[in-house]
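Q&A log
Question type: sequence-to-structure
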Amino acid sequence: MNTPLDFSTFSTGMLDVVRENLRHRTSRGALSPAEVNSWGIGLEQARALAARLNQVPIEGWVSLLEAVACERAAAARPPIELIWTGPFLRQGRARDTATQLAELFARAERSVLLVGYAFDHGAEIFEPLHERMRDGGVRAEFFVNIEQKQASRRKPVPVPRDEVDAQLAAWIEGNWPWGDPIPRFFVDPRVINGTVFASIHAKLVVVDEEHVLITSANFTERAQDRNIEVGVAITDKELASRTSGQFRAAVSAGGFVEIVLKRP
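Response status: OK
Response body:
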């Protein structure tokens, strides 16, 4: 008596192999155990699989296995991690903000998009990122806040371009002591033009269009080590792409402008 075939025992990789072999199969005849065995499936399992596959048209199996792959991919997404700055809690299950940020920078392979409001002690915070930029060719885009004066609550004052350059030069001096390569800098043109009194107040990191950190913590020593701060770290390509895409779409629409500093 034949043992019923249980697809739950097939790894996702093996189901992908079956799907792709069915998709590209040129013969319209019945599948033989030998043919299924040639896909890298054990002979006993190949016999059972061939018998099962021959019960339904190939196109039906391809559609079904595509659906299974989508369901497994969704179920395989890692859980959201809680990120925390504050007193150590023995019973707590959160990860430390500074540790998480350093790991994100150190694992970067292609790109880092960072959005931040306040910065200090960047030599400690950004050293792993600079190393990846220097040694691995990682590209970094920083969306940073420009401070503006206010003549009154309703009347912001434009920020001259030389003052914008001075603020970014001070940012580099205080947070990026290594020289080149440096990140690309983007700012809110409404602040420069004095059309609104506003801040870039978000705190966000996207690494390699895959890893996302959204946090209340500024990129400062106090926020990374002493404040009470809470955030989430998520590994999800769709969310990462949508998050970075939101900022890049804003750049394309003129919602942010790049400031290229004159270097000596």
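Response note: The chain has two domains: 7-75, 81-259.
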